[in-house]
Amino acid sequence: MSNAVIQLLVLAGIAIFLILRLKNVLGTREGFEKPAVPAEVAAPAPRKGFEVIEGGPDRDITDHVPDGSDSARALAGMKGAEPSFNVGGFLQGARGAYEMILMAFERGELDKVQAFLSPEVHAAFAGVIAHREERGLVVQAEFLGLRELALNEASFNPSTREAELTVRFVGEVISSARDASGTVVEGDPKSARKQRDVWTFARVMGSPDPNWQLVATGA
Fold first, then answer.
1. What's this model's pTM, rounded to 2 decimal places?
2. 77: which of 13, 126, 156, 212 fits an S-S bond (Cβ 3.0–4.6 Å)?
3. How many CA atoms lie within 13 A of 145 on its CB side?
4. Residue 215's closest CA among 171, 173, 170, 167?
């Protein structure tokens, strides 16, 4: 065999070897393969976040009156007319007003609370005090504390923005009245008694005057 033939066989063997190595490295494709999708198309569209739905019961209202009641709707109307209004804050103020007004009445010192009384209530209280003075009675009173406080009812007139809140109070007081001789003719200076009242306060929502007025009393 000539040298030329031997060289040709060697070269052919090398070519076959290289082809087999290349096939092992690259592998083979069988059947139909989908073309690669560009990244900007393959990436899924960002998912929109869940929409937060505001609403639901207002705990400042439903903690004091039934949800959906006439009183609840009235309180919501008050808040709409005056966003800074807060039922819990009102009741805290009513707590202090009750003691202040009750003691002013017992001691005959209505001038100290006149701004918190409607003309009708002021006249009624003043009449009772005047009757005591005519009899020569001197009242001694001490407020021991408030045992119960609850919102009974609320009403609101959207047209006039007039709001009314009726509150039930149960307090404890020591109260007695003595005549000119010092004899106790009413109450007991040593024993506490429960004082039950249902008072209605009124105010025009949105008014620059923040004070509520006592417009009706009951038991």
1. 0.72
2. 156
3. 2
4. 167
CATH label of the domain that carries residue 85? 3.10.450.240
- pLDDT score, position 3: 54
pLDDT tens digits for range 171-186: 999 999 999 889 999 9
Distance of CA 130 to the CA centre of its chain: 43
Q: Which amino acid is at 1?
A: M
**Residue 25 counted as domain residue:** no
* Strands 184-187 and 213-218, bridge-based pairing: unpaired
Q: What are phi and psi of 83, to 5 degrees?
A: -60, -25
> Residue 24 pLDDT more than 80?
no
For residue 2 the two structure tokens come to: 């000539």
Q: Is 213 left (phi over 0), alpha (psi -120 to 50) or beta?
A: beta
